[in-house]
Specification:
This protein is mainly beta. It has one domain. The protein has one helix at residues 98-111; strands at 14-19, 28-33, 41-45, 53-61, 64-69, 74-79, 83-88. The protein has a seven-stranded antiparallel beta sheet with strand order 1-2-3-4-5-6-7, with helices on one face. The longest helix is centred in the C-terminal third of the chain and has 14 residues, at 98-111. It is globular, with a radius of gyration of 14 Å. It starts with 13 loop residues before the first strand and ends with a helix.
Length: 112
């Protein structure tokens, strides 16, 4: 997966935030929407390789967060407060149509 450079919700450019959690750890990039705080999409990947995405998270509803884990090929739903739901079947997210992506997630949740 190639890291998007624009927010899939509003098409504004992402803000790149280069992270290094502790001395000696590998640097990674966090991308977040520049325009709106409620456009909560975070992309974690290697800043030197735009095709290296570790995970992507976003808000599905006011109390559910969805996380795509690319190395493990799984999607996790996390309920507000840190409780985890069951994983749903993995699929590659297509951010070109955000509304369609959300509908697909809801369908997967309903039938999983």
């Amino acid at each position: 997966m190639i890291m998007p450079i624009n927010c899939p919700i509003c098409a504004e450019p992402f803000i790149n935030d280069f992270q290094n959690n502790y001395p000696g750890s590998t640097e990674w990039i966090r991308k977040s929407c520049r325009r709106r705080l409620d456009h909560v999409i975070v992309i974690n990947g290697d800043p030197k390789n735009e095709t290296s995405v570790n995970w992507i998270s976003g808000i599905l509803s006011s109390n559910i967060c969805v996380i795509w884990w690319f190395s493990q090929k799984k999607i996790t739903l996390q309920i507000k407060g840190g409780k985890e739901c069951n994983d749903i079947p993995f699929f590659e997210p297509d951010f070109s149509n955000y509304k369609r992506l959300i509908e697909k997630l809801k369908t997967y949740i309903l039938f999983s």
